[in-house]
Amino acid sequence: MPKGVFQVPVPVNEPVRSYAVGTADRENLLNQYRAMYNQAPIDVPMYIGSELVRTSDKRTMSPPHDHKKVLGHFNWGTKQHVSQAIDAALAAKGRWSALAWEQRAAIFLRAADLLAGPYRMRMNAATMLAQSKNAFQAEIDAACELIDFLRFNVAFMQQIYRDQPGNQPGVWNRLEYRPLEGFVFAITPFNFTAIAANLPASAAMMGNTVVWKPSDTQVYSAHVIMELFREAGLPDGVINMITVEGKDAGDVIFSHPDFAGLHFTGSTGVFKHLWKEIGTNIEKYKTYPRIVGETGGKDFVIAHPSANPNEVATALTRGAFEFQGQKCSAASRGYIAKSLWPAVKERLIQDGATMKMGTPEDFGNFINAVIDKRAFDKIKGYIEYIKSQPDVEIITGGNCDDSVGYFVEPTIVVTTNPKFRTMCEEIFGPVLTLYVYDDAQWAETLHLINETSEYALTGAILSHDRYAIEQATRVLEGACGNLYINDKPTGAVVGQQPFGGARASGTNDKAGSYLNLLRWVSPRTIKETFVSPVDYRYPFLG
Ligand code: NAD
Q1: Which residues does 247 contact at the CB level (< 8 Å), separation at least 6?
Q2: How many helices, marked H, and strands, marked E, lie in the chain?
Q3: Does any ligand 1 atom lie closer than 6 A to the CB of residue 239?
Q4: What is the pLDDT along the chain (542 residues), one digit of tens a residue?
Q5: Are residues 181 and 325 in the same domain?
Q6: Which segments of 139-218 does DSSP mark as H helices, in order?
Q7: Which of these, 530, 498, 514, 529, lies nearest to 177 by C-alpha position?
Q8: 486 with 511: CB under 8 angstroms?
Q9: Are 208 and 261 in contact (CB under 8 A)?
Q10: Are 433 and 445 found together in one domain?
Q11: pTM metric for this prediction
């Protein structure tokens, strides 16, 4: 047990490396990418307890920008593997949850330092290959955000443990933050390596053991995450990674009496389905499961007449097209004041013409491929729909080509119908729809934004009029969980802008903050009376 009141290192955001021309980082990352691209195909196991599990059902891993290339295979499991992973998590639970918190902290701090050092290039290159991120997008996700999650969460863990109730003379009150009873199920999306690692890690950090199901299209970088955690000293069975059909995992896990929590990030439809499953099975559980889900978005940008057109255009293009628009926070609907529109439009068209698209191996490419054929077909379907409609015009992009990789041009659409389908639905690709409003309709447009979509994840206000900023902030209070003023609506930084949305965008438990970690503990209050009463009679009775 601890024999000191320890102070964890004060976290500082990991500096983002530039990978600029002539830097050693650029050379190292490129070499790492090429080495991994050219190595013999790898075989990624499932990690269940102390076992690396392989099956005869092999699934191919390929870069989205080069889909005929085989990077390796992963092993497809069955319901039996799900059961084994639950058993391994429960078997590891006793020792792990009894381990002193500073020992758990040390493992995750070591993981952060390994990632900042020897693992950095490998994690970034794996993310470039698996998810088709360019060097910068990989760096801010797989290196910096994940390092920040690990270091800041350790500090938030201590902040939670420190939060203690008051006392009165003769009584000492204490709060213990024990882990949940049972195991946690983490389900992660393809788009962020940092989220994939953080969902199982944050629950594990608080003393839980976890069954983790990564996305099928992220397994190549998920594998590096497991190697990192193992090298950092995470004991076997604390995080068990399985690659199975989501439904198979759900069928087994949601019927298990020891299921204690779901840590999910992904689409709204899947999350609603999982919530229903949990509700249907509620009688089976020993404890009410914690349900945390960060889901879809239809993120807005509104430009007031006082905004600078170049600032507006840059917030739109960076916000909408970085990582091919496959960020839950990506700008996907914009509302531009009519007086600004000619200048904004000109700049958008100019910028669109200079954006290069292709493999992340070529550092000149701003745009890479979308994740897989399913995503490509869905986005292409939206673009074809747009082309068939009378009240929309495509001003840049609009072409798709999947002959080598799943490439979709960054596409900007202008509509005269503010409720046009692509102003409301999440596309999750590089398609931005704009509506030009009359300057006099500023207040009405704010209400329109609030009522157009079921989502409420991120949004941005561009304005140099302080009254307008104040008004928009107030009217749009419920329209997003992360509001940006004079910035793009993406790029939340751990420890600075805790991230998450409400309405159909999630439970708003704010990844990368103490609020999220609180969901993975079950507090016990202990009241100790130093000198106990010896007579039931109160003075008033006399
Ligand atoms: P997705 O919903 O298709 O998949 C997410 C995960 O759920 C994957 O691991 C998938 O295999 C699994 N899954 C699917 N069906 C399942 C089932 N029936 N049972 C159990 N698991 C199941 O999402 P995606 O395409 O990987 O990611 C994109 C989505 O994630 C977008 O909607 C995006 O907005 C959202 N997202 C949200 C945030 C946020 O913080 N709000 C962050 C990243 C991504």
Answers
A1: none
A2: 17, 23
A3: no
A4: 678 999 999 999 999 999 999 999 999 999 999 999 999 999 999 999 999 999 999 999 999 999 999 999 999 999 999 999 999 999 999 999 999 999 999 999 999 999 999 999 999 999 999 999 999 999 999 999 999 999 999 999 999 999 999 999 999 999 999 999 999 999 999 999 999 999 999 999 999 999 999 999 999 999 999 999 999 999 999 999 999 999 999 999 999 999 999 999 999 999 999 999 999 999 999 999 999 999 999 999 999 999 999 999 999 999 999 999 999 999 999 999 999 999 999 999 999 999 999 999 999 999 999 999 999 999 999 999 999 999 999 999 999 999 999 999 999 999 999 999 999 999 999 999 999 999 999 999 999 999 999 999 999 999 999 999 999 999 999 999 999 999 999 999 999 999 999 999 999 999 999 999 999 999 999 999 999 999 999 999 98
A5: no
A6: 146-162, 193-205
A7: 514
A8: no
A9: yes
A10: yes
A11: 0.98
Determine if ligand 1 sits within 6 Å of the CB of residue 266: yes
Is residue 190 within 6 Å of ligand 1 at its C-beta? Answer: yes
Active centre residues (catalytic) = 294, 328
18 within a domain of the structure (yes/no):
no
What is the extent of the structural domain holding 513? 43-295+506-526
Count of structural domains within the chain: 2
Co-location of 100 and 85 in the same domain: yes
- Which residue's CA lies nearest to atom 42 of ligand 1? 328
- From the alpha carbon of 505, which atom of ligand 1 is closest? 41
Q: How far is the CA of 506 from the centre of ligand 1 (A)?
A: 12
Contact 424, 443 (CB under 8 A): no
250 lines ligand 1 (CB under 6 A): yes
